[in-house]
Structures are given as structure tokens and as C-alpha cells.
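Hi Y.,

Following your request, here is the sequence exactly as I used it, all 440 residues.
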Amino acid sequence: MTSPVRLALLGCGTVGSEVVRLLHAQSADLAARIGAPLEIAGIAVRRFGRDRGDLPVDPALFTTDPLSLIKSDDVDVVVEMVGGIEPARTWLVEALRAGKSVVTANKALLAEDGGALHDAAAEGGADLYYEASVAGAIPLLRPLRESLHGDRINRVTGIVNGTTNFILSAMDATGAGFAEALEEATELGYAEADPTADVEGFDAAAKAAILASLAFHTRVGAADVHREGITEVTASDMASAKAMGCTIKLLCIAARGVDPQGGETVSVRVHPAMIPLSHPLASVGDAFNAVFVEAEAAGQLMFYGRGAGGAPTASAVLGDVVAVARNRLAGARAASESAYADLSVRPMGEALTRYHISLDVADRPGVLAAVAGVFARHDVSIATVRQGSAEAGSGRSEDADLVIVTHVAPDAALAATVGELRGLDTVRSVTSVLRVEGAV
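Below is the corresponding structure, written out as C-alpha cells. Let me know if you'd prefer a different format.
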């Protein structure tokens, strides 16, 4: 009988516990798929004594010394589900340099210092798999890394954070404000007690960096990603989007571009944006994720499903475990990192975007001309203008609401336009600024 493939599990929280349960429940099928049984060599945890329910595992396998477990000659594959930068980076570099394949769901580490992991994998001749790091159970990274490897990807647009998608979907459906929708998300378990990583876009930015690195064969880190969260999105913004036949989503966008000298670049950004209801991503509701890929030969592709949760993430982790175990038995190794293109990352100010701008202006002759003059000074072309009276009961009977949607322009020019509008005498306030994606 073929010797078992021995696993070191780092972490036994929500995802780790599900991995243990699936390893136990599907042991026979997994062994048949791999050609050898999978066995747990040890499980590293922060402390003993935590209630782990009816987890089907020998308590003697638990340890609080992850490095000793990783260094053990009895370990073939290290599965990391702890998260964070350190000490996870130290553990995984140690494992990879020792020739032990690594499966991780650690998006923060991959976005912060994925290069160190890939370098260690190359040094040790080991596999590094991380399907679960971006979109849970959705098969996404392997198609980018393998299935589309013969194609040229031009753009990746995605909803990759379930918490923010639930909040924005609730705001759209009920007319609630951000605070009320966040409270509902917290009560239902979609938002953490501290939701900062989600609502401020940090989680999505890390995932955007991973997607861009794979799609464009370029090392892209979290620091390269322009990031904005959803905390400033209001019920009024949602109403304006509806009036235009749009909705608002937190999007991660990675796209090829060209710099002023004609060199190829990539821009990577995360921010809320209006998208038309006809766009495939507009119908992605609740806490679901979806990623829309545009490639030259394959055309438009969309990957959709649950992007978070213990069981979906564990499914992706086990898929990677099966792949690295089979490689190990065959004496093979997966394709190494592809970063040959080494494209420069374009600053957000040079990215071509469109703005939806809502203004509260004085309702008197010449106001529209003054506003239009600001756009002209910054070489920003206006696509549509909609003017209406101030809302009844607002106490602003001498004011008017002005809604402007621009054509595509460099983001820096659009931001400068908004900045000058804020200082215009006839503009009482800039009540909303949102980027627009797609034709509206």
C-alpha cells in the first residue's frame, strides 16, 4: 500500500475545523483520488483546552509548537489557516525551503509578501497553492493560472468581499443607510465585531493584488492597490444609482493600460462604483462573490459563488491539498510563479475613470455655466447633466440639485475638478462623488 501523505495543519478555527471534518468524512474518496491516504501529522493551535466540539481527531495531535511540527520529518504538506503576516510568513518560508508543499488561505500574507513565498518555493522545489485566499470555494485562481495561461487577460473586475456586498445589497433593497445595514450584517454573522478590514476595503485590496499578479504575470502587492471603502456610501447615493438604472458595488478592478510613453502598465484599485443593472455583476446579491474576467481569445467569463465561510473555504483548501499530494506522489511539481511581464503599476491618478457627481447649487442664472467652466479647465468632458429643484421640506427653496456624469478621464483630473467645485461660490456642497463603471 502507498504510504500516506502526512499533513501539518496550522490553525483549527472556523476553516481549520471544517478541513478536519472533511478529511475525516471523505477520507476514502480523497485516498482514491490521490492514490494514497491523507493523514494528519499534527495540528498547531495557540492554546490547549479550547472547546472544539465533536471534532473527529485524536487530542494528542494538538500542539502549541508549530515550528517543531513543520520541521518534523513526518510532515509532507503544511496547510496554513491562521492568517496574518507573522509568524505565518516565517512558518511557510521554513516549510517551503525544506521542500514541503504549502496550502494557504492567507490573502494578507500573499498580498504583503507573496514574492518571499514564491522564492522559497522555488528554492525548495515545493508547491505553493492558495485557491482559498480570494474567493472561497469559487474555482478562480487555478483557471487564471492554468486554464487561461495561453490567453491574454485584459481586465478583471470582481466583487470579492461578501460582507460589503451584503451591506450594499441591503441598502439597495431597503433604502437603509450604511449604519443600519452594517448592524443587520453583524446580527446575521456576515460582519465581524470589528468590520474595518471589510468595510474599509483592506480585504478586497489584498485579493485584488493576488488576482492582478496572476492575471498579468506581474508581482503586485497590497501597497500597489488604490483602496477606498464603503463607509461613505449613503442611502441618497443608492437612490441616485437607482434613478440612473444602476446599483452600487464595492469592486476590485485590475486592468491593463498604457503609460504616456506607450509602455504597457497595470492599474489595480478597489472602490465603490455605480454599475448598470445590465452588467453581470449587478445581480450578485447577499454575501455572494463574483469575478468577471475579460480575455482576448476566451472573451468574457464570470465566476460566481460563496466567497467565504468555513465549509466553502475548506472545500477550496482540500482541493489544493489533493493537487499537491498528487504532485508529490508523482514526483512532479506545479508550474512555478509566472512574473515574467513585470509590468509597472500605474498610479491611481493616471487611471481612466468616470465620475458621478451630485451638487447642491444656488438656483440662479449662470450657475451651470460656472460649473461647466470648472470641468473645462481640467479637460474633463461632461456626458450628462440632470438638474432638479431642492427636495421639498429641505429648507433649500433657493437651491437646486445638479447631477453630472462625466466621460472617461484621468482620475487625477476628475479629483481636481471636484476639489475646485467645492470652492465655487455658487456650489453650496458636493453631496456625493462616486465612480462609474460601464455604460449608463
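The chain has three domains: 5-136+310-330, 141-307, 349-436.

Thanks again,
Q.
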